[in-house]
Amino acid sequence: MAATVIDFPRSLKTDTYRRKTNKELRPREYLTPAEVDKMVLAARTSGSRTALRDSLIRETARHGLRAAELVRLRWDHFNFTDDTVHVERVKHGSSSTHYLERPLDLSRCRVK
User: Which one of 33, 40, 56, 72 has the lowest number of neighbouring Cβ atoms within 10 Å?
Assistant: First the structure.
C-alpha cells in the first residue's frame, strides 16, 4: 500500500508560523494606576479581609510581583518595624527587600 502524501499550502506549514511578540499582542506590560484602583474597588465589594486584599493588590502592582511570588509570601517575610517585605523572586530573579508603600494596618486584618 502506497503512502499518500498531502501537500499543505505553505501558510499551514509549521516552519512558517511565527508567534506574535508581546509588543505586538499588547501595547504595554503594566497596569495603570486607574486600573489598579478598579481592581481594589472590585476586591472591596466581596467578602472579608478587604484591607489585606487592598494592600496585597497595591503592593503586587507596585513591585511587579508574579502570582507565584505573591502566593509564596509568608508572615515572616514582613518586617513591620521597618515596613519592608522580603520577596523571593522566581524565573532567575534576584530575591530582595522592598519597602511597603504604606504601613499595613493590622488592626483591620483578621488573619488566622
Answer: 33
Residues with Cβ < 8 Å from 85, sequence gap 6 or more? 59, 73, 77, 78, 79, 97, 98, 100
Q: Count other C-beta atoms under 10 Å from residue 85's C-beta.
A: 19
Lookup: cell for 94: 534576584
Domain boundary assignment for the chain? 30-101
pTM above 0.70, yes or no: no
Of 65, 51, 44, 60, the closest CA to residue 110 belongs to: 51
* 49 CB neighbour count, 10 Å cutoff: 13
For residue 109, the 8-state DSSP code is -
